[in-house]
Amino acid sequence: MKTEEQQKIVLELPVDFKYYDMIVYEGKREEYRDIKPYWEKRLARPYTHVRFRRGYTKTTAEFRLIGIRTGEGRPKWGGIPGKKVFVIAFEGQPLPSEDREHATRPTLQADQPQ
After folding, report:
1. For residues 17 and 54, is the Cβ–Cβ distance under 8 A?
2. Residue 60 to residues 14, 26, 85, 98, 112: CA-CA distances in angstroms?
3. How far is CA 69 from CA 16, 76, 88, 90, 107, in A?
4. DSSP letters along 78-96, please?
5. Do the Cβ atoms of 31 and 54 come closer than 8 Å?
6. What pTM value is reported for the model?
7. What is the pLDDT of residue 52?
8. What class is the 7-96 domain?
9. Mean pLDDT by groups of 10 residues along the chain of 114 residues
10. Residue ranges covered by each domain of the chain
């Protein structure tokens, strides 16, 4: 019998620091990719989880994948109004990851006293 870990199929996606921080700290729960042959092929697998990488660093955050559909992205999360994209929807809090063990939230300008 397979364990949950053996059944997990993870979609790995590097994202810009800005979007990674929105995902981990601000509740962004959709990521967008252009509708292109590369993404059509890559997103065709039956993924169960999505792991975001903060740029090309070792810092990652993993979530349960809800689904992948086509549609318009939300502008507040980086979507362009009127543009059709793949919408990668996920849920929950980041799952534990060795790479995140020592990660800390970066200081944002909004967090600084004025």
Report:
1. yes
2. 9, 15, 23, 9, 25
3. 21, 19, 7, 12, 34
4. TPPTT-EEEEEEEEEEEEP
5. no
6. 0.78
7. 96
8. mainly beta
9. 70 95 93 97 95 94 96 94 96 68 46 49
10. 7-96
